[in-house]
Prior knowledge:
This protein is mainly α.
Amino acid sequence: MGMARFLDAAASTGDRSAARTLVGRVAPYASQIITPAGSLILGATARPLARAATILGDYDRAEDWFAMTHDIHARIQTPFFSALGRLDHADLCLTRLVGADIRRARDLATAAATIAAEYGCAGLTKRAETLLAQLQ
């Protein structure tokens, strides 16, 4: 859990040095679920790895980890983390800006907004709405 939090912090602050170090240490656990306690699930380890890969410019690896993230979150039925992963994936698209990335970011943000609204995730709903407003 701690390493995943550090990955998120590195991605949020743009600390490439920390991200590079942490990705090397956490990547073998990409397919794992973050569970600091038996009944507490904090999503897929692949999600913060994908965010870190995004700031490192390793977009192919980020895509692979986001695909893994979406699959894991769907299988374990975690709407909050499903929406969060889609919003983070939209951020990748908007960072990379190649081909149909704008349309894809819009699709991901729309899906996240729908999930977040359905399950009452107000913060994620607001983040998705803000992102969608910027894309119009």
